[in-house]
Every structure is written in structure tokens, then in C-alpha cells.
Amino acid sequence: MKTNAEIYFEEQMKNPEFRVNYSFAREKFKLEFMLEKLIENINNDFEKTKLLKQAKKIEKYVSRICLI
Question: What are the residues whose beta carbons fall under 8 Å from the beta carbon of 27, sequence distance 6 or more?
């Protein structure tokens, strides 16, 4: 059985404008989280190779979401 919140969300997702805004908000959150983690690791003096790997991961992610 679905909760009222799940039912409401499904109804909202039928609206194309809401669906687009929701998708953008999710992608923005993911990107902000990845950048926050990278900054945290820079501040904690992580190895340069690990930082570069994280930066490349973010770069690929940005490229992917720009193509959507």
C-alpha cells in the first residue's frame, strides 16, 4: 500500500514541468554533494592522485548531465 506522499509524488511526476524541475534539482544536489566531498578531501590533504580521480569523476558527471 502506498503512502499519501508516494501517491502525491506520482501525481506530481505526471506534470512535465514538475518532472523536469525535479530532475534538475536531483542532478544539482548530486553535483553539489560530489563537489563538497572533493573540497573536504582537499582540506584533509588527501593524495593528489585520489583528488584528481575525484575531479575526473565530477568532470565526466557534468559532461553526462549536459548531454541529457
Answer: 65, 68
